[in-house]
Design goal:
Largest sheet: 4 strands, antiparallel
Number of strands: 6
Order of helices and strands: EHEEHEEE
Number of helices: 2
Strand content: 35-45%
CATH topology: Alpha-Beta Plaits
CATH class: Alpha Beta
Strand order of the largest sheet: 2-3-1-6
Number of domains: 1
Radius of gyration: 18 Å
Distance between the termini: 18 Å
Helix content: 10-25%
CATH architecture: 2-Layer Sandwich
Structural class: alpha+beta
Length: about 110
C-alpha cells in the first residue's frame, strides 16, 4: 500500500478532485499555504494499492500543468535599509507528489 500526498495549486484542485473521484480514488483535502509565494495550495492525501499508483499520478499529471506568473517579492531590509524588489517571473503550478510506503490502511 502507498500513501500519496499531492500538493497542487488551488486553481487546479477542483478539476483534479473531480477526476480522482470519477476514477474511484478517495482522498482527504487540506487547505495549505506555500512558503515562497505565500499562495494558497491544496494538499490531497490518498491511500491506495500499489498497482493504482501510476493511475493516480497520471490523473494528477493530466490536470496540474506548470505556468509562468509575475510576482513581486516582499520588500527586504534591516534597520534603516530598504531594498526594493522588482517583479520576477516564476514557474507555478504542476504538482509536488510524495509517495510513502504504508503498512496498513484502516477505515472505521
Amino acid at each position: 500500500m502507498k500513501l500519496l500526498i499531492a500538493i497542487v495549486q488551488d486553481e487546479d484542485a477542483g478539476e483534479l478532485m473531480q477526476k480522482l473521484t470519477k476514477s474511484g480514488f478517495q482522498f482527504t483535502k487540506l487547505a495549505t499555504t506555500g512558503g515562497f509565494l505565500r499562495a494558497g495550495n491544496t494538499t490531497l492525501i490518498i491511500g491506495l494499492e500499489d498497482e493504482r499508483l501510476k493511475e493516480a499520478i497520471s490523473c494528477i499529471e493530466s490536470i496540474c500543468k506548470s505556468r509562468k506568473q509575475l510576482i513581486t517579492p516582499p520588500i527586504m531590509g534591516g534597520a534603516g535599509e530598504v531594498y526594493l524588489s522588482y517583479p520576477m517571473e516564476v514557474t507555478i503550478g504542476g504538482a509536488t507528489i510524495f509517495v510513502l510506503d504504508m503498512e496498513q490502511l484502516i477505515k472505521i
